[in-house]
Amino acid sequence: MAGTPAITIEPGYRPGFLARCLEMHIAFYHPSVHWGLAFETSLAKDFAEMIESLEKNPRTQVWAAVETPPPETSAGIFTQRIVGTLLVDSESLKTTGAAQIRGFIVDQRARGLGIGKKLLAAAMEFIESNGFDKATLYTSDTQDTAIHLYKKAGFVVEMDEKKIVWEKPLRVLQLTWKRPQTAGQETNGVAEDRNN
């Protein structure tokens, strides 16, 4: 009987990251919303630019959920596979102290294993430890499982509107996480009342 593949969450670029991130997005979104060329080229350009900035910007990071089959099934062949991705972009919002979560996806065959929860936890640890005050992400209203994860991590819906996205109508949600502040903490030199 074959063992269960091991899945690890690994930070940083690895060969095939961009290709696999795009492949998973296309495999998921094309059948459901029929996004095609505009979607693929836009993601490829944006994600490539962000990944290129990793070396010069330590406040930008990517994570891959990497599946490694059990030793008895690999026969010495390199068979690791990226089954999830998440990107934290510190530049796209052009706001000091703000990050954007992008490229968050888990391979359809690997869903339900807690991979999304682990990817998001790694990203949130990075966001908090790097002193970001705010993190924003955009998703569609059809992503119930992801929205549940975001809300458990402290994100709240700040915008919910119908838009044309990559030539298709869609309800887009903007969710935002804000760093919790402690009672009596000062903001702009004025102590805030946390009861309001």
Automatic annotation (TrEMBL):
Keywords, in A-Z order: Transferase
Domain of life: Eukaryota
InterPro entries cross-referenced by the UniProt entry: Acyl_CoA_acyltransferase (IPR016181), GNAT_dom (IPR000182), NAT_camello-type (IPR050769)
Any Pfam family hit: Acetyltransf_1
Keyword Acyltransferase: no
This protein's record includes keyword NAD: no
Coiled coil regions, renumbered to chain: none
Record domain N-acetyltransferase: where: 37-171
A GO MF label: N-acetyltransferase activity
Protein name: N-acetyltransferase domain-containing protein
